[in-house]
Specification:
By secondary structure, the protein is mainly beta. 0% of the residues lie in helices and 43% in strands. The chain has strands at 9-12, 21-28, 33-36, 41-46, 56-61, 64-65, 69-72, 79-80, 82-87, 90-95, 103-104. It has a six-stranded antiparallel β-sheet, with no helix packed on it. Strands 9-10-11 form a three-stranded antiparallel β-sheet, with no helix packed on it. The radius of gyration is 17 Å and the shape is elongated. The structure holds zinc ion. One of two assembly initiator proteins, it binds directly to the 5'-end of the 23S rRNA, where it nucleates assembly of the 50S subunit. Part of the 50S ribosomal subunit. This is Large ribosomal subunit protein uL24. GO terms for molecular function: rRNA binding; structural constituent of ribosome.
Length: 116
């Protein structure tokens, strides 16, 4: 069960983008990476493939290691460690900040119905 999911807000904890927050645009589970909006921008050279598309440089987000980001708890607004617990027979994520302890929703809803 992935700790970070699409739509989550995360904070970068290391590197050039340290402290920066953004929304997870994509999770790449097979490589343990995430693409975070506005983070890890790289320039890509684009070659024209048609008459319409022009050759040029675009800026895109390169994937980051999941271990380089922490989830931002929507309740305490801190970059936190998370845990999993059972709630109403469902496995949910929760904030490990001892002063908070909130259940952390998916972007799709407060609690995700999941089998994994
Ligand atoms: Zn919290």
């Amino acid at each position: 069960m992935a700790k970070v999911r699409k739509g989550d807000t995360v904070q970068v904890i290391t590197g050039k983008y340290k402290q920066k927050r953004g929304t997870v645009k994509r999770v790449l589970p097979e490589s343990n990476k995430v693409i975070v909006e506005g983070v890890n921008i790289v320039k890509r050279h684009i070659k024209a493939r048609s008459q319409i598309r022009q050759t040029g440089i675009v800026e895109v987000e390169a994937p980051l290691q999941v271990s380089n980001v922490m989830l931002v708890c929507p309740r305490c607004n801190e970059a936190v460690r998370i845990g999993f617990r059972e709630e109403n027979n469902e496995k949910v994520r929760f904030c490990k900040n001892s002063a908070c302890g909130a259940t952390i929703p998916d972007a799709t809803g407060w609690v995700r119905h999941t089998a994994d």
